[in-house]
Every structure is written in C-alpha cells, then in structure tokens.
Amino acid sequence: MSLHPETSAITAGRPDAAPDTPLNPPIVLSSTYHAGGPVGYGRYGNESWSALEVAISELEGGKTLSFSSGMAAVSAVFSILPIGAPVVASNQGYSGVMGLLNQLHSMGRLEVRFVEITNTDEVIAAMKGAALVWLESPTNPCLDVADLQTLITAAKKLGIGVAVDNTFATPLVQKPLAMGADIVMHSVTKFLAGHSDVVLGSLSTNDEALYKRLEESRRLNGSIPGPFEAWLAVRGIRSFPIRFRAAESNAKDLAVRLSNHSKITKVRYPGFGAVISFEVDGTADDAQKVCESSRLITHATSLGGIESLWERRRRWAGESPSVPEQLIRLSVGCEHVDDLWSDIQLALTVL
Ligand SMILES: Cc1ncc(COP(=O)(O)O)c(C=O)c1O
C-alpha cells in the first residue's frame, strides 16, 4: 500500500509487530557482533541506522544510506568520481559544498564547472563531457530555484549522473528520484531531524550498483552515524511533515509581511518551504545588529529546526561574495506567527 508522507513518516522504520516487542526501533550500542551474521561489525551496519534509512527511503523513494553529517554524504558522492572528473555545480550554493568543490578542484581531484543555476541553457551547455551535475534547489542562502525537471532530463539524455541536495525543499515539495535524478542528498540535521540536536546526512538512490559504491565509500571512509543520533532523527521524522507544513505556513505569511516593511529592500522566498532570505535597508553592521536584537528568534546558524533562527550569512568568511552583505537568512520555525512578527518588527527598529 502506498502511503502519504504524513503517514509513512509515522509508520516507517518500526520493528515488526509481535506481542511485547517495542513500538520504536532500539538504540543499538554495539561495535561488535557475534560472527556469522549479515552485519559483521559496527562500521558496516547498525539497526538504528537501518530504521532511519528505511524512514528516509519511504519519503524520498530509493534505498538510503545515512552518514555522520550532510557534508559526509556529499563527500561520499564526490569520492566515487574518477580523478579529474568534470562536475557541474551552482556558483552560489551551500558554502560548505562550494568550499569542498573548490578544494577538490584546486587539488586536481575534480574539474569543477560553476554555473548560474537559474540559467538553464548555461547549465546544459556546461554538461558537455561532465561526469556529474550537482544540483541544489532552492539554493542556500539566496533561494534561487533551478528548473530541476529540465536539467535532470537533459543530463540523463547525455548519460550524466545527477545528484540533488533536497535539504531545503524536502520530499514534501519535490522528489528528485521520481524526476530521474540518480542520487538525492539531505542534511538530515535540518528539516528531517528538525530539533537542532543532531548532525547527520543521507543519500538515497534507485540504482543498486550506485548504492553499493556509496556504501563502500561510507564503510572505507568511516563516515558513519552514531546510533543515538540516528534514533533521534527517526524520532524527529515522525513529526517532520507536520512541522514542515506549520513552518511553511508561517514563512508564507512572514514573506508577505516582510515585503511590505519599509526597512526591507528585498525578500527572497520561492513560495514554498520555511526559509526566507531578506535584505535590510542598511549596511552589514546594521543587518548584524538586527540579528543580535531579536528576543524570540535565535541568532545562530543552521535551519530546519522547530525553533526560528536567523543570521547574516556574510558573517562567515566562507560565504560567497555574491551574497549581499546585508542579507539575513531566516529559518522559520513553528512558533505562533504573530509572536515571530512582533520579534522581527522589534529587531528592525534598530535600523
Ligand atoms: C543545503 C545544505 N546542504 C548541505 C549542508 C551540510 O550539512 P551538515 O551541516 O549536516 O553537514 C547544509 C548545512 O547547512 C546545507 O544547508
């Protein structure tokens, strides 16, 4: 029976039902297993990871591998590419991925072609002879949206691998595997786990051979999640659809209110999801002061948690210089929208 995500988030990854067996998957704290079974060793498998992997697979499709962080998952994808392989990627995506790609390019490990992801023709032109297209849509933090379906179809026609970072949109908005992508990646740290208490990542794929190569990469590089973190993420996924929809509803409302505020010069909101980026009428210092003046919204990096956070992205040296200095990224949580708006209005009075 094919279930709606609201249902499968609640039912997936539970142990088989039998009298007195627990409803929830256990936290399996063991590096060592009795010989003769399919797991063998604590770096090769763990029941707590399996529960998380089943739950993400139910949402995204395919078969899932969990990793110690989103960046560990990203690194696993790049690790299986041949030396010097051409990779097409957004010139304005998550700074960690861009930093990693720049490093791999300067080492000669990969040949990275950075493109304007909203320019579909430019991206398709850059695909010629590439091994992989790395897509992030919407992008972090500028919330640019790529024409995913056109790009995936074009890449597949050329026989190029496609990986999509689906952290911001989540499977409630788009399902890249169903669109033909080879891999979908998550920073599980964000919306899926949703409580700002774990750092985790995942990769899902429909391709069994690719799954095996990525699993081998995880096994050999040791980029495995902790069982407790995996368990917390499963617990978070139970309420992910409800949290995401509540936060999205708040974000839609706040995007309109921000657009009508006299101290805001630009609002970036793709019309879905729970992250808004906006520019204040002022300098970098002014934007910084706004972020430091909130009482309810936490001044911190990260996103996708049940609580609202904001920060000026250019406070990080690694952020792309094309991101405006006065841009604030707001991760909208599940608080009451009027309380969030009062806090934003109050913080903006420093301008
Ligand atoms: C879009 C995106 N992808 C990947 C990552 C990396 O994930 P992690 O911090 O879990 O390693 C992040 C982290 O902020 C992100 O925002």
Automatic annotation (TrEMBL):
Needed co-factor(s): pyridoxal 5'-phosphate
SUPFAM superfamilies: PLP-dependent transferases
Single biological process term from Gene Ontology: cysteine biosynthetic process via cystathionine
Disordered: region residues: 1-25
Keyword Acetylation: no
Keyword Disulfide bond: no
Pfam families named among the record's database cross-references: Cys_Met_Meta_PP
Keywords: Pyridoxal phosphate
Molecular function (Gene Ontology), one example: pyridoxal phosphate binding
Any one of the GO CC terms: cytoplasm
Family indicated by similarity: Belongs to the trans-sulfuration enzymes family.
The protein's name: Unannotated protein
Species, as recorded: freshwater metagenome
Lineage: unclassified sequences, metagenomes, ecological metagenomes
